[in-house]
Design a protein that fits this description.
Blueprint lengths: L10 H6 L4 H4 L5 H11 L5 H4 L7 E11 L8 E11 L2 E10 L8 H5 L4 H14 L10 H17 L3 E8 L19 E2 L3
Parallel strand pairs: 3-4
Antiparallel strand pairs: 1-2, 2-3, 4-5
């Protein structure tokens, strides 16, 4: 994977970065909704900006950003990875966009007939997050995306890391999103 990033010229550049552009690029799905929201914003989309204490400034946003995780062959692919200036702090922000898609598999489903690599990966994620092995009914996607935010915070030397679900549905229409309010996933990194 190249470490050279090219600024987007519009929605088509986001589509080209998808694992399967034909399958994943559709109206009413997260990839297109995220692209439209972030491209239309002058900086951070308003619902993301509202989560910060100060008038936060978007420094850099990378669509479909891949972050290598220990123990496995597949990277965590953030719908958007952003560096955000919030007052005197810089935040590593991993964004998972959702419209009506589920959060993929639960940890229990993901671990069913698990390889040694999967067990190593989950142990490494738990160590990174400073948590015990999570219950089987939590979504694995939320754990590895949060790990991606922390790994990138360490790589870029930011003050804090955050993982956010950028929801394009109302909480009333999808009860799965009610657990994400209020936003409290930001963690200060130890020096």
């Amino acid at each position: 994977m190249s470490r050279i990033y090219v600024p987007t010229r519009g929605l088509g550049d986001w589509r080209a970065l998808l694992a399967d552009p034909e399958k994943h690029w559709r109206a009413g799905y997260s990839a297109m909704a995220a692209a439209r929201s972030w491209e239309a914003a002058d900086g951070l989309p308003p619902e993301i900006a509202a989560m910060f204490v100060t008038n936060a400034e978007l420094l850099l946003a990378i669509p479909e950003h891949k972050v290598a995780l220990p123990g496995g062959r597949r990277e965590s692919q953030c719908d958007v990875f952003a560096l955000v200036r919030d007052g005197n702090e810089t935040v590593s922000l991993a964004v998972e966009a959702k419209v009506a898609e589920p959060f993929d598999r639960t940890i229990g489903d993901w671990l069913r007939n698990a390889s040694d690599g999967k067990r190593t990966r989950l142990a490494a994620i738990c160590e990174l997050l400073g948590c015990p092995p999570p219950p089987d009914d939590l979504y694995y996607q939320l754990f590895h995306r949060t790990a991606a935010a922390i790994l990138e915070a360490k790589r870029f030397g930011t003050d804090t890391a955050a993982m956010v679900v950028h929801s394009f549905v109302s909480v009333a229409s999808d009860p799965h999103f009610s657990i994400l309010r209020p936003w409290n996933s930001r963690a200060r990194l130890a020096p």
